[in-house]
Every structure is written in C-alpha cells, then in structure tokens.
Specification:
The structure holds 2 protein chains of 2 kinds. By secondary structure, chain A is mainly alpha-helical. Chain A is built from 15 helices and no strands. In chain A, helix 4 packs across helix 8, helix 4 runs antiparallel to helix 13 and helix 11 crosses helix 15. Classes of the chains: A mainly alpha, B mainly alpha.
Chain lengths: ~280, ~300
C-alpha cells in the first residue's frame, strides 16, 4: 500500500511537471504574438519613453493602425498579395486537376515514363531553378508585373501527385457507370470525381494559399517597384525605408495586419491544415 | 481503361508547359551558366567555358563567410530542434486534457509570415539608445550586462538566428512526431508496464525505435531545410546580410543574382550547385547512417 501511494505521488509529480513544461513552451510560442499586439497599441511617445519595456499598457491606441494605412501603402501590399494568392492558387488548381486526372484515369502511351519523370521533378530544389527563371522573366520584360510573379509559382508536382493518388482511390465502377449514362470525361471529372475528392482539393488549396501569402524570395527578386510588392517585401520595405526607423509601434501594427489573415484561416481550418501539412508540408 | 492518347496529352499539356518552362529548362540551364566564364547578362555573351566561376566563388570571402554561417546554423539548430520537438511531442502524448489546445498553439508559427514575425524577434532582442529590449531586461534579472543581439558580436547574432530558426521549424517537427507517437501500438507500453520497466528505459527501448523512421525523416528534411536558410536571417538582420556578417549560402546566391552586388547569374549558379553538392553529400551520409539504425 505504502509503495502504491508513492507511485501515485510520483505519477502526479511527473504529470504536473509535464504540464508546466508544456505551458512554458506555449508561452514561448505565444509571447512574440502578444508582444507585437501589445507594442502595436502603444503610442509612439509612450513606447519610446519606456527604457525598460512594460508588459502591458493602460492607454491603448489605434493610431498606429491608422498610420500604417496612410503613410505607407500597406493596403496596396495586401491587395497585391491577395491578387497574387488567388490567381496563383486558381491556376495551380486548374493545372493540377487536369494533370492528376490524366495520370489517374486515362491510359496513354508513355504514361509510366511520364509519371516517373514527374516524380523525379519533385526532388529539384527551387533554389537551383530560380536563377534561370529570374533571367527568363527579366528577358521577357515581365519584371514588376503579375504574370512575372505568378507564372513560375504555378506548377507543383507534389500537389499533382497528392491529387492523382486520391483520384486513383475512387472505384472504377463509378467511372463505367457514368460512361454508360453517357457522361463525358469532362463531366465525370467535375460532377463525380472532384466532389468525392473535395477534402484533398481543399487541403492543397489551403497549403498553396499559405505558401503564396508568405512567399518572399521570388517576389523580392522579381519586383523592385513598390506598386508590385507583396506583404513580405512590403514589411521589409517598411522596416528599412518607411515610417522612420524608430517607429516600432507602427511597424508592429503592420506586422499584426499581415499576420491576422493567415491566423484566422488557420483557426477556421485547423484540422484540415494540420492534416494537410503532415501529409505534404515541408518547412524546416 | 480505353486508350485516349491525344486527349490525355491535352489534359497534361498545361502542367507540362509550366514544368518544362520553369523547372526542366532552368535545371539544365543552371549547369550551363555555371560553366560560362565572364557571362554578361546585358549582351548575353560569354568568353569561354571552364571552372573559373567555381574558383571565384570558392575564393570569395563573402561566400566563405556564408558557408561558415550556414554550417554553424545547421550544426546548432538541427539537433536542438529535433530533440526539443521529441521531448515536447512525448510530453504532449502523455496528457489528455488541453492536448488540442497545446497542439494548436504549437502549430501557430507555421502559418505566420517569417519576415513579419522575425521583425518581432528583432525588436525583442535589439538594443537601441532608447531601450535595452525585452530580452536584455530578462537577462539583467540574472545580473547579465546588456548585449546588442542584432548589431553586436558575432556569437550573439548567431544565437538569435538559431533561436528564431528553431522557433520557426519546431511546429512541423512537433506535428509529425506527435502523429508518429500516437500510432505506436499501445500493447508494447502495456507489456513494459507489466514488466515494471522504468520510464527512461521504455522511452529509449520502445518509443525511439518505434518512431525511428519518422525521426530520421525529420533529421534528413531538417538538414536540407537548414542548409537552405535565408529568409529568417533577412527577417532579423535586414536585406544587406553581407554587411551584418550573417549571410547564408542561399542568401549569397540571391545577392549574386540581384541587388547591389547582383548581375552575375554565373557566380550565382556555381554557388547554388556547390550548395546542392553539399546537401546531396550530407543527405547520402544520413541515409547510410539511417540504414544501420532505423528499425522498420
């Protein structure tokens, strides 16, 4: 009995330590978010008069949010990013759906070879191809334009692969039944296959949206006019040239505005996103 | 399935066009660039074929600095982030209450903009004439004199970069490891319990071997990802990474391509190919080691 009690207390101590440890890490993750929101609602003068930063504020202000929408073109950056994200994702879906359908449902000469080559393309790191793409887009005179931003970001072998696998799981009987009913391939794809595979389509859409919203390297290489900046380059521009170097509260307001859309998207589609990333995300 | 040659190729055509134009052709081209000596991007001419670009890059002090930074970053962040992710995942798996909440919180950095949140890290660590910053405030509680982590000594900058990198890469690793841990058959643990096996022994003899394929997958992708580090450094130290002594190999490639010191696609190509030779070597070594240690 004495022994049993000792194990019980030991278990409790371990459980308690586990929660404390997890709690500390949660604070480490959340703290930067708290700090950016906190700083963004401090006024410029009160922030700069704090030699020792305070952990809360009693006089919140929304001045900084007004400031980032008036003195720097943050609204334009957001709009550009939205256009870029929507168009890239739409084009990606169009390309992916047809390619996945061809690989999953159609039989053609050279299919196996073509698919193997496709899979091999997955291993090509983007850093290697970006150099020539930069030269190509520059020579085509597409710098500082949406086509220049979008076109090289469209095709993704991995998403084609994911969707093809999902298409292939749909029983053949459905296809033949549709054929008997006089349903065309095209109609079958859109009326039967895509509704069945909707979860995968949603997953790749969300992953692409996250990728687009956060993309930095390609937009930076291909745009140097502010009118075409996306948010990542916008925030870098704000930091280095806009707002005055020391106006940290306004910068933080911009950071909050940029971060909120994806965090909201994440909280809505939490399950889908985490599932999608564990199936196909790579970062870190 | 019926044979529908032409139709199938029409369905494939959009994907093929994009992939050939922006992946296959560039892949071939990057090797050609790397051997073209004295390439001029304005007139698109070059004066010879050879290894000059590689020699130039390998002698460039900026490149050597970038290689040094990248290797330190890899050596520090890959082991720490993998170990930390493992500890956190094991802890997460041992609780039931609040598990979903913790998982959601831990995943947040994945969906945030690296550039934007990096700015917050910079503010937290930076020492300015107006303030020592939050981290220095914490350090002063332990009697440590303020350090400028953003514009100060090399080790301090490297420390911040490592901390930020770990913060950014952990969500993915935690997510993958928690689902791997959850799929380990509970019978093994029950058997261990019946035998009175200690927790540590259960962890090293059951948990780690059972998830070793996932662990190695994470270590390999971790190495690859860390070798490609770039935007985290930009987020903390600004776009002029050479001046901050914080450039990475990928950063060097982009600087050679574009920007103040840009306009040299040949040098950029050579540097990129050197990087991927390094990554390929390390990945092969990893695979050989994993063949010996992973239990499938």
């Amino acid at each position: 009995m004495e022994n049993y009690k000792r194990t019980l207390t030991k278990n409790r101590v371990i459980k308690g330590t586990t929660y404390i440890f997890l709690g500390i890490w949660a604070v480490m993750v959340l703290f930067p978010f708290y700090w950016m929101v906190l700083t963004s609602i401090k006024s410029y003068s009160s922030y700069n008069s704090e030699y020792i930063p305070t952990l809360f504020t009693l006089s919140p202000t929304f001045e900084n949010y007004k400031e980032v929408f008036t003195s720097v073109p943050l609204a334009d950056y957001l709009f550009n990013t939205l256009v870029f994200t929507v168009l890239t994702t739409a084009l990606m879906l169009f390309v992916t759906v047809f390619a996945a359908f061809a690989f999953a449902r159609m039989d053609f000469k050279g299919k196996d070879t073509a698919f193997t080559l496709f899979l091999a393309l997955m291993m090509i790191p983007s850093e290697l191809v970006v150099i020539t793409n930069f030269v190509t887009i520059t020579n085509l005179d597409l710098r500082n334009s949406f086509p220049g931003l979008i076109l090289p970001s469209v095709a993704s072998v991995f998403y084609i692969y994911l969707l093809k696998e999902n298409f292939a799981q749909v029983p053949d009987e459905l296809y033949y039944a549709a054929k008997v009913d006089g349903c065309s391939d095209f109609k079958y794809l859109f009326k039967v296959l895509l509704p069945i595979c909707r979860p995968t389509v949603v997953t790749i859409t969300i992953l692409k949206v996250i990728e687009c919203w956060n993309s930095y390297v390609w937009p930076r290489l291909i745009t140097d006019e502010q009118a075409y900046f996306l948010v990542s380059n916008g925030i870098q521009e704000i930091r280095e040239n806009g707002l005055g170097r020391e106006n940290i509260p306004a910068m933080m307001a911009a950071v909050v505005v940029i971060s909120v859309p994806l965090i909201v998207l994440f909280l809505i589609f939490r399950k889908k996103i985490m599932e999608g990333v564990s199936r196909g995300g790579t970062k870190g | 399935m019926e044979r529908s040659n032409n139709k199938a190729w029409i369905y494939l055509l959009p994907a093929l066009l994009f992939l050939v134009a922006f992946m296959v052709y560039p892949l071939v081209d990057v090797f050609i660039y790397s051997f073209e000596e004295g390439y001029n991007s304005a007139s698109q001419t070059y004066n010879g074929i050879g290894l000059y670009n590689y020699k130039y890059v390998l002698r460039d002090p900026y490149f050597l600095q970038a290689v040094k930074n990248t290797f330190i970053l890899v050596a520090v962040t890959v082991p720490i982030s993998t170990a930390l992710a493992l500890v956190i995942s094991v802890a997460l798996n041992s609780i039931e209450k609040l598990r979903n909440m913790f998982q959601t919180i831990y995943f947040l950095p994945y969906v945030t903009n690296t550039l934007a949140v990096g700015l917050v890290f910079m503010i937290l660590f930076k020492q300015t004439p107006y303030t020592d910053g939050f981290i220095n405030m914490i350090l002063s509680l332990f009697g440590i004199a303020p350090i400028d982590f953003i514009g100060g000594p090399y080790w301090a900058k490297m420390l911040v970069l490592s901390i930020y990198t770990i913060w950014v890469v952990l969500p993915f690793k935690i997510l993958i490891l928690t689902s791997a841990l959850a799929s380990v058959n509970k019978d093994y643990y029950n058997a261990a319990k019946v035998d009175g096996t200690s927790r540590w022994r259960t962890f090293t003899r059951i948990t780690v071997p059972m998830i070793s394929p996932t662990l190695f997958y994470l270590i390999i992708t971790g190495f690859i990802g860390a070798f490609k580090a770039y935007s985290d450094a930009v987020a903390l130290f600004g776009t002029d990474l050479n001046a901050a002594e914080m450039n990475t190999i990928v950063g060097y490639v982009y600087d050679m391509l574009y920007g103040n010191s840009g306009g040299y696609p040949s040098f950029a190509s050579s540097a990129a190919i050197i990087l991927f030779a390094i990554v390929l070597t390390i990945t092969c070594i990893n695979l050989i080691i994993s063949k010996k240690n992973v239990h499938y």
